[in-house]
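Kindly inspect this today.
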Amino acid sequence: MKPISLFLSALTLMLVTSCNTPAPRISIFADHIGTIAQQEHISFAEAATRIRNLGYTGVDVGTNYSHAHLNTLDSLGFAHACAIAWIDFVAGPQPAAEEQALSFMETRQWPQLLLVPGFLPADRPAAYTDSLRDAAVNRIAAFAEKAAQRGLRVLVEDFDNPRSLCYDTPSLDRLFAASPALGHVFDTGNYVYGGEDVLTALTHFRDRIYHVHLKDRLAPHDGASPAIGKGIVPTREVIAQLIRSGYRGWFTVEHYGSRHMLSDAAFSIQTITAPEKK
């Protein structure tokens, strides 16, 4: 093939790839919608409508969330991005909590669940803590397998608490080594909070990522979560890398603690969807 033909073929491939690159699917926490309703002195339905009009099409909810609010979200066409359950596997077996979470997913048709699995105690002997961790890891692995047998997926995120069973790369590696069925919610801000490099973690865990939380941070170990684009997290690069790699899941915007949740939600989605500057 002649050089000019090679060049034209490569150019055509680039153009086709660029044109076929899907836009990210953006979701938000149902809790944030509730916060908007309180801050703006409007109904939950009106807050959800405003969020939908901004361009958010999915939502993350807790498995104990208000059924009335869940029905409102469904009626407005919000897709089911990810359910969330706090199950304290450090404290011991939790059969009732496990069944409640899985039944919620099946009944309300939520295909994946973010598990927050409890926290190790502070100021206890290392041998005691290690024993608790090992037992909890085994319980999490068994829960993930039980969910998989029912056609559901259990995920864990990099949680921003050093006593979490999934705080950083080493603790997540331990969990994933114990459970082939367990997936990852990649939280951009929590890796920064823990002092890790976001893009390094992204490469390390890419094959486990089924859901993403977009959270910005002002500095490492700073718990504040500003609107996306007002901190130091390379959010757009994370999104671009994931989409290029074939990720087609949800990107859930998160800024718990915001005093201006509606305007922060507007700023965040504008940042995420704005065209790249040339």
Q: What stands out?
A: The mean pLDDT is 92. The longest strand covers residues 79-86. Residues 112 and 153 are 5 Å apart (CA to CA). The chain has one domain: 44-272.
